[in-house]
Structure formats: C-alpha cells, structure tokens
Amino acid sequence: MSGILNSSIGRKFAMALSAFFLMIFLLQHFVINSLSVINPDSFNEVSHFMGTNWLIQYIMQPVLIFGVIFHFIMGFILEIRNKKARNISYAKNNGGANSTWMSRNMIYSGLFILIFLVIHFIDFWIPEINTKYIQGDMSGLLADGEGYRYYEELTHKFVPIWRVAFYCLGFVFLALHLLHGFMSAFQSVGANNKYTQGLKGFGKAYAIIIPLGFIFIALFHHFNH
Amino acid sequence: MALDSKIPKGPLADKWTNHKNNINLVNPANKRLIDVIVVGTGLAGGSAAATLAELGYNVKAFCFQDSPRRAHSIAAQGGINAAKNYQGDGDSTYRLFYDTVKGGDYRSREANVYRLAEVSANIIDQCVAQGVPFAREYGGLLDNRSFGGVLVSRTFYAAGQTGQQLLLGAYSALNRQIGRGKVKMYNRHEMLDVVVVDGKARGIIARNLVTGEIERHSAHAVVLGTGGYGNVFFLSTNAMGSNVTAAWKAHKRGAYFANPCYTQIHPTCIPVSGDHQSKLTLMSESLRNDGRIWVPKHIKDVEAIRAGKLKPTDLAEEDRDYYLERRYPAFGNLVPRDVASRAAKERCDAGYGVNATGEAVYLDFASAIKRYGKEQAHIKGLDENDAALVKQLGQDVVRTKYGNLFQMYEKIVDQNPYETPMMIYPAVHYTMGGIWVDYNLQTTVPGLYCIGEANFSDHGANRLGASALMQGLADGYFVLPYTIGDYLAHDIRTGPISTDSKEFDEAEKSVRENIEHLINNNGTHSVDHFHKKLGKIMWNKCGMARNEQGLKEAITEIAELRAEFWKDVKVPGTNDEFNEELAKALRVADFLELGELFAKDALLREESAGGHFREEYQTEEGEAKRRKEFQYVAAWEYKGEPKDAVLHKEDLVYENIEVKERSYK
Amino acid sequence: MNLTLKIWRQKNANDKGKMVDYPISDISPDMSFLEMLDVLNEQLINKGEEPVAFDHDCREGICGMCSLYINGEAHGPDRGVTTCQLHMRMFNDGDTIYIEPFRAAAFPVIKDLVVDRSAFDRIQHAGGFISVNTSGNTIDANAIPVNKHDADDAFAAATCIGCGACVASCKNSSAMLFVGAKVSQFALLPQGQVEATDRVLNMVKQMDEEGFGNCTNTGACEVECPKGISLENIARMNREYLKASLKG
C-alpha cells in the first residue's frame, strides 16, 4: 500500500476518489440550492442546519476543502508530469479525430472552475466564516432578528448581472469538466463493464443537468428580485 | 568430409528417448561457465535463447529488429500442428509423422520428422502454461481445425494470429530470462560473420544498426535461428528485413547449405498490384477450409471479367471451373500447398487468370456463407429459406472465423470479400532448404547449430501448413537445448573465449572491407534496383516451374548481376550511423550469391519433388515426378564462387514408411 | 496523385531536427503508404540525397515495427490499420501530408522517423510473463478448461502488436493501453493468477520509471490502436493494481 501515490495508477485513483467526493458534494449543494427556488423557508432551515451542525462544520467542511485543494493540486501535478512526458510536440496533431475536446482540456476547464471557486468563496464562504466564527453570531438570523438570513443573502448576491453572468460561465465550464470527468473517474477506479454504457448516459445527464440547474437557479433569483 | 547425420540406432519410436538418455550433460554449476550466442529471436531462436538461459547457460541473443517480438514468425496466421488427438479423429504421432514425410514428398529425414511429431504435443502444453490464448470451444477446451494435405483436425490456432501468439509466448519466456539477467539481448544488431577458431564456432561479428559499430562477441557455441531466404525473390511474404546473411556467412565459414532449391510457393496470397509492390501478403491457408477456388470455365467470361463487363458473382455455377475439386476429388481445396499453387499457375498460364495481369484466381466464400447461414438459422429456429437472413448469419460466422483476414484483404485490395470472391495468386512464402544439420541440429562446423526455418531438416521438398511453427518451437524448446549439451560438455574447462585472436581480427577485417567497398562504391543504382532484378530472374526461372535452359540462364544472369552490383551499387550515407541502405546492401550481396547456388541446385535435381517442379519431369497428368536416384539431400560445400560449390549427398533411407507416389486424388 | 510531404528529418539522437518539404508525383492510389515512401527514397538516392529513415518490417500489419504520425494521427487517418496497411487511396491529389515520428520522451528519436521503443521491452522484462520453465513437463493443455468468454477476451488483449500508437496518440504519452493489455491477458487466464500481484506492481513501476505520462482517460489510444485494444484493459489493470497494492 505504501507509496501508492507515487505510482501513476495510484495518483489516478486518488484523483478519481476526490472527484467522486466532489460530485456527491455537488449533488447535495444542488439539492439545497434548489430549495431556494421551491421553498425559501425550507432553504433557510436546511442552510442553518448545514451551517451549524458540528459534524458538517468540523468534519465534512475540512474534508471538502481538503478534497478541493487535493483535486486541484493533483490535477496540476499530473498536467506538469504529462507535459514532460512529451518533450517535443507534434507539428500537426489531430486530437479531434480520436478524443473529445473536453477530455483534452480538463486542465483549462479545471482552471476556470478554480477561478470561479475563488470568487464563490469570497462571495459566500468568507462572509459566512466571518459572521459565525469571527463575530461569533451563530444564530443565523437577520440583523433585525426577523427570520433566517440565508435566503436574503442569496438573493442579494444575484442582483448584479456581472456576477450572474460569471456564475453561468463557471457552470458551463463545470459541465465541460464533468462531461469527461464523470466517466473518467469510474474508468480510473477500474469500473468498465457491462454497466458502462448505461452509466455513460447517466454521466452525461449528470454533467448537463446539474450545471444547467445551477444556471437556472442563478437566473431565477436574478430575474425575480 | 563425409556427411554424418548421427541418427541414433534403434526403433524409430525410441530413437529420441534413447538419444536423450545417452548424450552428455553439463552439470548446473558448469553451465554458468558457458556462453552461448543465439542469433535470431523468432519462434526457434527466441525459444532456444529462453530455454538455454533457464538451463543455466549465459546467453547472448541478437536480432536485427528493434525488439525480439517483431521477428517474422509473428506473421504466421493459420496454426500449429500437434498430435494431441483431442478430436478423437484417429490422429497419432505416427500419423503426423507420416503426413509430414508424405507432404514433404519423401525428401525429409525420417528420424527428425518422427521426433518432431513426438514433441509436438508438448509444445501445446507448454504454450498453454505460458498463457498463449489458443481458440477454445464453449466447454472451455482447446479447439482444432484442419489444414491442407491431411485428413484429421490437429491444428491449434488463435484466430488468424497464431504465429503472433506463439511468438509472444516465446518472447515472454525470453523476457523472463532477460529480467533475470541470464540473457543479454542485443536489439538492432545484425550478424555479419561467424568466427571459427581451431575448427569450432567461437563467436560472431555483429554490426550495431544504430551506431554502425562493428562488434565482436565470443561464446562456446553459436546457434542460428535466422529464418528463411524467401526474399531472394524480392517479392515474397517474408518481412522486408528477412535475409540469408547469417546463414550464408555460416555457409562461407564451412557449414553446408542443403537443398536451396526447395522453396514453398504459397497458393493463397494477394496478387501483385503493380511495379511499386514491395512485398506480398499471405491469406492464411485456413481460408481453404471454407473457401472454394475457381476460375471461369470459358475464356469469353474471363475476358468479360477482366474488362469489367461481368462480375464474378454473376457467373452461373455451371460456368465455373472449381479446378481443385475437379482434379483432386479426395482432398479438393485442401490439397497441399505445392499442388494448389501449381494448379493455379496452370490455369493462369492457360489464360484463365481473372485480374488485369492475368495472375489471379478466385477464392470464394459464397457457399460457405450459405452453408453456415442455414446452419445458424436452423439452430436459432429462424427461417432457413430467407436468403438475406441466411447470408447475414453466414457472414457473421465467417467473420468470427476469419474476420481479421477479410479486413486485411479489404484494406489492401479495396474490395469487400464478404460480397465478392477474393482474388489470390501464389507467392514465395517459405524455404524448406537451409543449412545442413545433423540429428543434433549441429551444422558441419562443430559448435555451430542451426534451428527453425534456417535449417533444412524436417519438411523435405514441401512443408505442410501449420508445421513451421511446430518445427520452430520444437527445435528451440525441446531439441536444441538438450543436444547442444552433448557438445558443450567438452567445453566446461575451456574458460571464457577471448575476442583478441587472429580469427576475430580476420573476420572483423573482412566485414569492414565489405562495408567500406559498398559505402565508397559510388555507383549509379540503388540496392533495390539490383534486388528487384534478382527477384525477376528468380521468379521467372527458378519459380513455380523450372527447366534446364531457364536454370542455366539464371546461373549466368545472376553471376553477371552480382558483378554489376559490386561495381555499380550506390549506398548513400556513412558506415557509422543508422544506415538502412547499407544494411540492405549487405543482405542483397548475399542473396546474389545464394541465388546462384539455388539455381545450380535446381538444375542438378533432375526430378520434380514438392516445391521443386522441373517441367521435364512430370507425369502425364502434369503432376510432380520424383526419381529414385534423387532420394538424397543435396548439401553444398562452399569453395569460393557459388558455381564452384561441391555437392555432398546424404542418402535418405525410409525404413518406416513406404515411399509411394504422392497422390491427393 | 501529386502530393507535398512534410517530413521530420533528424540526423541522429543529438541533432535538433526539422520538418522538410518534399514534393512527390505519380503516386498510385493502390500503393501502401510505405511504398510511397520507398518511391521517395529511391528518388532521393538517385539525386544523391540521404533517404528518409523509417521503421518497417513485415508490411502486413502484425510485427508492430512501423510507426509514423501521419497528418496528426498515429498510423494515419484510416482505422484499424498500421502505417504499412494504410493505402494512398485514403488521400487526395494535391494533399499536403505531415509525417512525424511517434513523439514521447520515453521514445527518443534515433534518426528521422525511427524511434527507440525499448521502454516497452523493459516493461515486459519486469513482469510480462508467466514463470513456467520450458521443459515441456507441464500439465496437459486441456487439464484446465478456460471459459470461452475469458479466453476470447485474453486473446483480444494479447493481439497488441506493441507498436506504440497508444503512446503517440495520447496527449500525455501514457503507455497504459499497452501495459493494460498485457496485464489483462494474464489476469483473465487461470495460468496468470499465481503471479498476478507481483506482475502488475512490477510492470506499472517500470512503466512509471520509463517516463510515460499518466492516463487521463481521453480514449485516444483505443481509437488509434491498429488492433482495437479496448479501454476495458486499462480499467482491468487499474483494478488489478489496486487489488495488488492492498495485498502487497
């Protein structure tokens, strides 16, 4: 087992494991966000639970942050190693003949997602940490004490059009990343069998529906408030 | 020197066992002190190198390709024979022995062939243990198919890639020994001479094909597994690099060259498409299990087909001449290769060839597709009279059996063989002749051994399908590693062989002189120019049919061409770099000598036997006519020019087989 | 046909190398790609120039010696063929054709279009075998029945010709398809089970040491493989490797 991360397959496997974790996280993030469209009260309650539950806050949140950072750093390491594996590039390369654009450009879709995440953290996560752990306000209530603040804060963020546009673009890149990444993760952990065809369809659906859903939520709040 | 074949005494079936019991062995501690050079890493060389290393010898192996896995054994398609009798159809060691001797037109050595048949079963066990993925039946047991010239199913196969799978098996055994450090592998090295010290083979001179460096390598014994010389014809199914150089250099150093004129012209190859052609592609003989060979019955239809006015599929059954089925009702399309090839030539010479060059016959799968389709429809409970369905089901069956061959044909010819018959024509494929060896596979130079296609031993005047792989592996895995011990047992106190001797100096000097001559020659024609010319002479005068006048002309023309080559060949580049033209020039120089000996041997052999067909010696029906007085192996001793070569005869004695007229009717 | 060839010329391993243009005319569509290069070389020799060096041997698509990256694809634009089986009818009169060596740090150029693929051999030395002595005294070949489905899959994996098109096509120069095929062949057969753990660990270790890149599952290798080796073999190797890592 030792040194597994020093092998190409080990790194690939680790990349896939972090990807699975992130894809599951993404799904729950999407489900909770959807509540903001369907029922603001439920959204507030779930958000408060997630924001104050010790298991989520002290265990899952660090794991998530580690997962994100790991996925990115490993992605860069792999990219650098892979570039080194071909020291002279082709004068003419017809990559489109044998592979998808998405599969060949994971580093670029990933980089854009990283930029997106930085903005996203500045928008939501840092204010959240500030309120709860620096100012010590764990109540989750609005300043006037009239109900939870989460829904208000969310809709407020989606007022400026530039942010909505940027978020939508981020989701497009997320979709491109997932269109290759979903099946790639399964292949990396060795799952390629009679279920693969079905899983491929599911992966495509996941890669398109989730980002599209996020786009819908962003646009919904922009145009409704 | 009289030829001593060293065939052990005793009854045929006990010879090999008795021999193994009586020869000298080298103890394991002493094997570590002995070096063996193996040149060539095909089925014979690769398996020999691996086995010798397993036994404990220090092996140095050489191949001219970039990896041992690329040796041309890899291209063998159809299968490998073994007397396993898994099908329970009456096969036995004796029957395999009998078929092989008869198939070789009673021109092979009984004892060798019997040993080959005896160890054939071990080969299959060995290969399966190595992980060679042979074709299997649904019950999980090994499948067999039938090949030309026999009446049983004893051929094991792996789709149309049996040679590849067997070679990769030998390669894996070799890899294991390379990994253990017991074999030192020299890729991209070409052997350019054998070094003989005090009458014994003690090393080789090799050229590193990447750097051009001339290297000396010494050993206590040298084994050649360097394949056949079919490329003397320029166009053949051999790989581009296949050559006679190693064998020829051995010949020049004292090894007798036996039966050079025995060449196999394989009946099912893709016809030549034009002057640019660089090589010919074989379509496995296994296709003749299901394909029927025919030409139109009437010349007018031939002309219409050539003019593109008539499609072969439009020709009615009664207007087709299934000439093999007509002439040889018992074996039909499965007659041996030499017979099938000559029959195709006979039809094409008579004007019935079906392509533009007039050198092609049809190999038709329509009836097999129909037969299989009906069978499948019946099994699946579908309508057996639905022609479209039957055709589709039948095509599926044919695809699983021969898919890769059909695809290969389509890529090369640009016609779909599922819909229209294939066009085929004979092409040079295998050489039964080669370095003369005794029962121990030792040449006339002590310490110099020769195995596989490079030697002359087991196939006589014609080789049966699926027997080359059998011989290569039998020699390499099961025969040579034991018999060589008998010789090496005397060498346990010799110690390492020095490369600092006058013999090595002399050999290296002669290699260097040859190279320098070629590089500095600055002639006007490329190497290929001469090679193509040689090929034309060989094909026209020493090909499928030979006669006295043609052979005499060939001898003169080849000698002239050789003189012209040395005077006028142009080799660009330098010696100390990767220089393929130089490598080619060195090979063609040897082909130009061998070609002449080939013609001389064919001229002397005033009979027809197997692949050697002399027009003067045929029966009234046009079949090969053997002559009792030529029941010998012609082993040639080098004396300078090929024309001066001296003939030595090894009489062939048949004690266990009655020599009969070979009939497949 | 008349064509313009853009060919990588490099004198030796230390030379920098560059693309050079060669016009060529009167090419028959029935020629194979290598026969077209033969024609070019014959012309170069007659003009007193150095012919283009390229690897080739069997010219029937099985030895794996020929390579070439043609118009941006390993073995050219056709599918299921090696360069020697690629025919000029795949091109049009007036085309410009780029011809480059297979590129990977692990496949250094020897000369022009010839590369050194001995890294593949070294991976095989590390474990591409079943450790059985060639004594012939093994058990009878039919003593262990093998499920036909597994046998067929093992065969499909074993048809790899080791040409390196997978590495050349992969944007990461990864050798996973090549190694995956060999690991799979043995993993699918009962004979291969005994050494399964060591085999996969050793072969992957060697693969990594040779400097091949990491697989990112683009699938380019599978598409360009002249023998149609499936990506399933890579997945199987991943499983075998993880299993072996946990055990070992």
UniProtKB/TrEMBL annotation, chain A:
Record bears the keyword Membrane: yes
Alphabetically ordered keywords of this record: Membrane, Transmembrane, Transmembrane helix
Record InterPro entries: Cytochrome_b-558 (IPR011138), SQR/QFR_C/D (IPR034804)
TM spans (from-to): 12-35, 55-78, 106-126, 164-185, 205-223
UniProt keyword Membrane present: yes
CC per GO annotation: membrane
Protein name in the entry: Succinate dehydrogenase
Automatic annotation (TrEMBL), chain B:
Reaction(s) catalysed (UniProt annotation): a quinone + succinate = fumarate + a quinol
Highest taxon of source: Bacteria
Gene Ontology CC annotations of this record: plasma membrane
Domain Fumarate reductase/succinate dehydrogenase flavoprotein-like C-terminal stretches: 531-664
Pfam family, one: Succ_DH_flav_C
GO molecular function: electron transfer activity; flavin adenine dinucleotide binding; succinate dehydrogenase (quinone) activity
Subcellular location: Cell membrane
Gene: sdhA
Official protein name in the record: succinate dehydrogenase
TrEMBL record, chain C:
A Pfam family that the UniProt record links to this protein: Fer2_3
Positions of the 4Fe-4S ferredoxin-type domain: 151-181
GO BP, sorted A to Z: aerobic respiration; respiratory electron transport chain
GO molecular function, one term: electron transfer activity
Requisite cofactors: [3Fe-4S] cluster; [2Fe-2S] cluster
Signal peptide stretch: none
Domain of life: Bacteria
Family the entry assigns: Belongs to the succinate dehydrogenase/fumarate reductase iron-sulfur protein family.
Name recorded for this polypeptide: Succinate dehydrogenase/fumarate reductase iron-sulfur subunit
Originating organism: Hanstruepera neustonica
